[in-house]
Amino acid sequence: MQDDVTSPPLGLDINPSSTTTHVGSIADRDLVTSLFAQNPSIRHILHTATLHKPHIESHSKDAFVETNVQGTVELLEAAGRLGGRIESFVFVSTTSTFGRALCPAKGAPPRGSTSPSPRAEKHLRRDQSGGRGRVPPRPYPDGLARRRAPHEPFFQEADDDKERRDALENDNLKLLELCYRRADIADLVSACVCAMTRAKELRWARYIISAPSPLVKDEATLALLNENAADAVEAHVPGCKKVFEDAGWGWLDRIDRVLYTRYDF
């Protein structure tokens, strides 16, 4: 939460850290309300608090609902009560809420726009909470613009897909995924700043954030990605197959999505 996109943010987290200015939960209604009351200069809300894939084994379903759904509702409600003071509400989610919907049948091209089909509990709860931003429990003032920015973060833990985990080293798999789904911290930060500055102009919208892909979205590339990912990447980055071979690295059999990329550098 902050007053403008260049000022130091007010950070709320359940754990203390170098960027946490207040320790507590976004699901705590009294705490959230008091923070807005004590900081009248707040104009933007960047909501990233969530339980993710690594928490599936350590947290209950109730904890996922409390953080990913109820916490989002509390923030939206509190922002709505402030009238036109809040200029943007940016909800950073995960593209995994699209889940199986982004895995087309063999031989069928991936689609860049589709309806979510969550793979796991946390993906379902994030999709549910994202929907609350679009269909809120009460009418919010016209001044409250909401954006949802799904992304696919990197976790240090090994992939939860045993077949992929056994087939490729962790670094090998993560590098390949940067071709089509993951994001660098710089990509995420710049996208969030853009969302905050343009929220009032664009109103509600959902955007995918990902690292710049070396691939292009044309029929031939999409078809090849679904059959032979190595040849598809080699066609756009000549010599990469030799680099992988020298490193003893392998390739994914297929890549299930490639979206439009705008280069900033």
From TrEMBL:
Pfam families: Epimerase (PF01370). InterPro entries: Epimerase_deHydtase, NAD(P)-bd_dom_sf. Residues 102-163 are annotated as: Disordered. It comes from Parascedosporium putredinis. Signal peptide: none annotated. SUPFAM superfamilies: NAD(P)-binding Rossmann-fold domains. It comes from the Eukaryota. Residues 119-129 have a biased composition (Basic and acidic residues). This is NAD-dependent epimerase/dehydratase domain-containing protein. Residues 20-101 form the NAD-dependent epimerase/dehydratase domain.
